[in-house]
């Protein structure tokens, strides 16, 4: 295979993944079709199955890659914080970018729902969530928190919960949530000691 055909293949694959990430929030996981992905990517439907074993394999890879990108930005941002309170404030302030109906929020919701019926997707998303929890736990431990693993689990669940609820009740911003989250994390730390 020539370098040009390899590059074209990579480009088609990237376009298919990007099209899937765009279509999942727009249409819903189950409404995305081979044809809709191919049309959005500007390729023939046969290329979807040339690059991926199935439409579900394409959707899985697209969502796992997109979620990995979103989650990978959390720890570097936390590491910029000078202390635990500043890190928690930063984490909560980042939530203001998501209103619950934005593409990233809808992608996460659709992926979580699809994972209830797709064991491979569930395992891959669980691995990502586990990685986030470990990173949060390490960051909490570095800042002297006494129960980093349990707190990281609660913190990740709280962030997910806020994002999920915002689609229905978009009334809580960073200014309201940050003090509550700080008290929760501090309380969990005090109870562990």
Walk me through this protein's architecture.
The chain is an all-alpha fold and 193 residues long. The protein folds into two domains: 1-55, Orthogonal Bundle (Arc Repressor Mutant, subunit A), CATH 1.10.10; 73-192, Tetracycline Repressor, domain 2, CATH 1.10.357. Helix content is 78%, strand content 0%. The chain contains ten helices and no strands. The longest helix has 25 residues, at 3-27. The N and C termini lie far apart (62 Å).
Oligomer: single chain
Structural class: mainly alpha
The tally of helices reads 10
CATH class of the largest domain: Mainly Alpha
**CATH architecture group name of the largest domain:** Orthogonal Bundle
Question: Care to count the β-strands?
Answer: 0
Ends distance = 62 Å
Over the alpha carbons, how many angstroms does the gyration radius reach? 19 Å
CATH structural fold name of the largest domain: Tetracycline Repressor, domain 2
Number of domains: 2
Shape: elongated
Low-confidence stretches: none
What would CATH call the homologous superfamily of the largest domain? Answer: Tetracycline Repressor, domain 2
As a percent range, the share of helical residues equals over 70%
* Average pLDDT rating: 90
Order of helices and strands: HHHHHHHHHH
Largest sheet: none
Q: Estimate the strand proportion.
A: under 5%
Keywords: DNA-binding
Pfam family, one: TetR_C_31
DNA-binding region: 33-52
Organism: Saccharopolyspora elongata
């Amino acid at each position: 295979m020539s370098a040009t055909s390899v590059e074209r293949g990579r480009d088609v694959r990237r376009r298919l993944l990007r099209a899937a990430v765009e279509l999942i929030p727009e249409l819903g996981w189950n409404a995305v079709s081979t044809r809709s992905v191919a049309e959005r990517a500007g390729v023939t439907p046969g290329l979807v199955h040339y690059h991926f074993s199935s439409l579900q394999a394409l959707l899985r890879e697209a969502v796992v890659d997109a979620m990995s990108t979103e989650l990978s930005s959390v720890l570097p941002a936390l590491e910029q914080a000078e202390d635990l309170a500043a890190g928690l404030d930063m984490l909560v302030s980042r939530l203001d970018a998501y209103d619950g109906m934005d593409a990233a929020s809808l992608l996460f919701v659709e992926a979580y729902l699809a994972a209830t019926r797709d064991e491979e997707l569930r395992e891959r998303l669980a691995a990502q969530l586990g990685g986030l929890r470990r990173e949060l736990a390490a960051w909490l431990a570095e800042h002297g928190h006494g129960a980093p693993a349990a707190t990281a689990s609660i913190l990740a669940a709280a962030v997910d919960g806020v994002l999920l609820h915002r689609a229905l009740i978009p009334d809580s911003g960073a200014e309201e949530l940050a003090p509550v989250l700080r008290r929760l994390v501090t309380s969990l730390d005090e109870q562990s000691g």
